């Protein structure tokens, strides 16, 4: 049976994450080995030529699943009929920039992109925001897309989730594949909370296996939460291949579901669960079935976790209030 190609829009396509992402989308890792794709690459005008270079390389791979590539600096064209949108392009913080300036500059990107998604995307559109500050950029885009169901706007915390699994595997000597039910709560920022109290290592409770609260507080949590900064320090540029990999994981799971007995972490609009104010785009433990995610309910949140979740949610609330004041939502 010939399947209809899925339209995948990638913004910031000429950037470093774009370069690590596009080839994997085109080779079937995003949606599956039997799903053809059309790529739509959105860039700012000065970067169109570089995007064309990447498109030439994509052509040169002769990927059987890649049915077409369109490159544009017009968001209405890029999101026309989009089924999946990966919003990667964002305004990085530069020297002397205050947080308000950063939020305002990103508002200038995510507000019009949200409107273009609202006006042009397919009815089944799924949006993943990668560009930082990812949770709040997702909120801005969502607010400009009133006709799209709010839950279709998500922010990426899968990189944090993968980082946490890897650190836990290193500490315990377990295989990565033995670690399940890890959770990232809150913001994709240094306040995020990687929670192992409900995680399992080969079926055993991870916190009990580790049995070292000091390691948790002083090593594991800060290592995961500050990993982005450590990569920037080491590489002289922010994470790219691992971020692209996490974006692939996020969408693949959203489309194809979580494994039985496991869950993942996604930044999604809160329904008020776990005391997170409704509407904030915050990371939660989620299971996914038939293309729909649900927050894992009724987890016992101990005091250690509660204060860390609350701190990250407080930061998200402040970011939301700041963009509200700027008239972006
Ligand atoms: P980059 O600077 O290499 O590329 C960004 C690209 O976006 C550039 O090519 C730029 O021209 C383009 N761009 C800027 N404004 C645009 C617009 N309005 N429309 C379309 N394209 C636009 O950056 P990168 O390393 O690819 O990172 C992209 C973003 O992802 C950054 O904000 C980074 O902080 C973020 N990031 C997030 C995570 C996460 O886990 N959520 C992880 C790593 C990086
Ligand atoms: C990361 O977690 O690697 C990035 O979000 C860091 C950054 O600031 O781009």
Question: Your description of this structure?
Answer:
With 329 residues, the chain is of the alpha/beta class. Helix content is 43%, strand content 19%. It has helices at 16-26, 48-60, 75-78, 99-120, 134-143, 158-172, 206-210, 213-225, 227-235, 241-256, 303-325, and strands at residues 6-11, 37-42, 66-72, 84-87, 126-129, 153-155, 179-180, 183-185, 193-195, 200-201, 204-205, 264-269, 281-289, 292-295. Strand 1, helix 1 and strand 2 form a beta-alpha-beta unit. The chain is globular and about 55 Å long. The protein starts with 5 loop residues before the first strand and ends with a helix. The model has no long low-confidence stretch (mean pLDDT 96). The structure holds nicotinamide-adenine-dinucleotide (NAD) and (2S)-2-hydroxybutanedioic acid. It comes from Streptomyces xanthochromogenes. Its EC number is 1.1.1.37. Catalyzes the reversible oxidation of malate to oxaloacetate. Belongs to the LDH/MDH superfamily. MDH type 2 family. Keywords: NAD, Oxidoreductase, Tricarboxylic acid cycle.
